Amino acid sequence: MTAPLAVRELVMAYDGPPVIEGLDLEVPAGSFTVVVGPNGCGKSTLLRALARTLRPRAGEVLLDGEPVARLRGKEVARRVALLPQSPVAPEAITVGDLVARGRFPHQGLLRQWSEADAAAVDSALAATETAELRERLVSSLSGGQRQRVWLAMALAQDTDILLLDEPTTYLDIAHQYEMLTLCSRLHREGRTLVAVLHDLNQAARFATHLVVMREGAVAAQGSPAEIITAELVESVFGLPARIIPDPVTGTPLVVPAV
Amino acid sequence: MTTTHPAPHAASAPAAARTRVLGLGPLALVVRRRPVVVTVTLLALVLVSALVTLSVGQLGIPLSELPGVFAGRGSRAQEWTLFTSRLPRLAVAALAGAAFAVAGSIFQSVTRNPLGSPDVIGLGSGASAGAAAAALVWPGLVPVPVGALLGAGLAILAVFLGTGRGFAAPHRMVVVGIAVGAMALAFTQLALVRVRREEAQEVAVWITGSLGARSWDHASLIAVAFVVLLPCALALTRQLQAAEMGDDLATGIGVRVSRSRTLAVVVAVLLTGAAVSVCGPVAFVALTAPQIARRLTRSSGPGMLAAAACGALLLILADLVAQYAVPGVILPVGVVTAALGGIYLAFLLVREWKQVTA
Q1: Within an 8 Å CB–CB cutoff, is residue A110 touching chain B?
Q2: CA-to-CA distance for B114 and B108, rounded, in angstroms?
Q3: Centroid of chain to Cα B77
Q4: Closest residue of A to B258, CA-based?
Q5: Sheet containing A66-67, strands listed edge to edge, beginning at the edge strand earlier in sequence
Q6: CA A30 – CA A8 distance, rounded (Å)
Q7: Contact at 8 Å (CB) between B287 and B120?
Q8: Are B239 and B87 in contact (CB under 8 A)?
């Protein structure tokens, strides 16, 4: 079975030496894939390649086996949605209007609204529990609410694949878990999720497929229970640690031994 | 047949009752009530101020006599005044004002900055420098309006190269643009001090922006440019709106960001160039009109039509003030808009300052 999303011999670079050089990776179908790794390991750059926000210097990104570079922007956007790290809410926009903007790839210049658009916006608002915020101005929302609204906008795109670039940054711990639980539910409903996360324990708790990166390459990948070991954490993050089962979920819990 | 009906799923149209979906066969346009009301009101005001413009002046043509003169039943003097003098001048004012405003709307969206209008980021100064070069430095090489257009083109090229990242660095565009504008101004001043007084006088009036002695040639040039370029601007509105939320997000929903932005800038430069070549780089209309329109429509994106109506109204009103505010003195319209623009900038500064200290 072809992976819904994959990269082949990927080389990514900003103005300088490559951050990622010759990376091969497949995102398993129906997985909640989480990418972790120390700062500067290339995890965000990998996500930018998947999201087409940074063009690969070499190699390709494959969507259902097809190179994305050959697909039209809207075509890709009907299959892959992105929650970027710091989107900017327009002035004076309501939640409903913002979420409706996620329908852009399904609309044309002359066909700007349809029944399907309305239905997708409704279900995106319902899925993120933001329906009652619909008429509120985005600028009046709290950080946690706002992040859920941005997620709703991505959901309104109605895609099978959802990319999340550090979706918990800037949120307090309760809202971090609220966000991740929500993502987990979206995954169970049948979407393939790829998220970049900072917190190894959150990654271990929510990921079905964990990708650990170091210096632009994959250091380990697989289910969190199989791959998270004291040796891996020590060698990738340079942090001596002990791994114990999470008392709540049974997933691996990294306890720093410093 | 055009049907206006509540959006399908009335509760879930983009912002419920204040929005309608206008359906016509395969067409389904999202129409918001407030921008429509604002635009129609502005257009009505444009009409009123146009009638005033046509009727007042040294040779008054009372409003009641206007239809008669239009129908060819006026006196010779009335007909000459209306058709050769006032109508072309009015058309140039309205269309150039609208063109400046649409260009300003595009630039403010691209730079994500209310100050990022073409006249602030060096386009106006570039056009002036081009005009000065064509008229004074290398006279006869190209006509003055063509020189202005080339100057504006060079200025935007300098901005594009100067940011290091093309148009993808909104903040740098404003800073680099101000620098480009300053250099262009220096060139213009150098050109002005080195030539004979009469020539310098003529160019000085031109670069202030003036609607004096406009002909139908001017009017048709700006009309053609506006009719061709406005639909282009309208077609790019949604892409610009998306790009305002960040390049990553816009890419994520399928917008080809850098392509849309470059196209939009080209449209804005052409609009500015056309407007500048018919009335000079009239200051501040491009800066203020889109902002006033945005405030009035409370919209969350560049509203091209409301901005255009607002720009037309501003320039017509400014021209009325320029002609009749000081009895016996006809000011260049650019002086009036610059003064109005100064007041607007002060307002903007006070507001920013309040926000910072609040």
Answers
A1: yes
A2: 5
A3: 33
A4: A53
A5: A20-27, A5-12, A58-63, A66-67
A6: 20
A7: yes
A8: no
φ, ψ at B20 (rounded to 5°): -125, 150
Cβ distance of A115 and B9 shorter than 8 Å:
yes
The owner of tokens 């906008």 is: A153
Task: Kindly state whether A174 is in contact with chain B, defined as any CB-CB distance less than 8 angstroms.
Answer: no
**CA B177/CA B100 separation, integer angstroms:** 17
Contact flag A92-B241 (C-beta cutoff 8 Å): no
CA B320 to chain centre: 18
Q: CA–CA separation, A111 vs B185, rounded Å? A: 46
DSSP string, A29-85: TT-EEEEE-STTSSHHHHHHHHTTSS--SEEEEEETTEEGGGS-HHHHHTTEEEE-S
As beta bridge partners, residue A217 has A214
CA dist A137 to A55, A200, B15, Å?
Answer: 34, 34, 11
> pLDDT per residue over B261-309, tens digit each?
999 999 999 999 889 888 888 888 999 999 889 888 887 777 899 999 9
Beta strands in chain A (DSSP E): 5-12, 20-27, 32-36, 58-63, 66-67, 80-83, 161-165, 192-196, 209-214, 217-222, 241-245, 252-256
Between the two ends of chain A, the Cα-to-Cα distance in Å is 44
Q: Is A138 in CB contact (< 8 Å) with chain B?
A: no
pTM attached to this predicted model:
0.89
Is-contact A195 A81, C-beta < 8 A? no
- Alpha carbons B222 and B214: distance in angstroms, whole number: 12
The answer to whether the Cβ–Cβ distance between A51 and B244 falls below 8 Å is no
- Which DSSP string corresponds to B294-332? HHHHT-SS--HHHHHHHHHHHHHHHHHHHHHSSTT----
Q: What is the pLDDT of residues B160-209, one digit of tens each?
A: 999 888 888 888 888 999 999 999 999 988 888 888 888 788 778 878 88
Chain B residues touching A75 at Cβ < 8 A: 254
Distance from CA of B96 to the nearest CA of A (A): 26
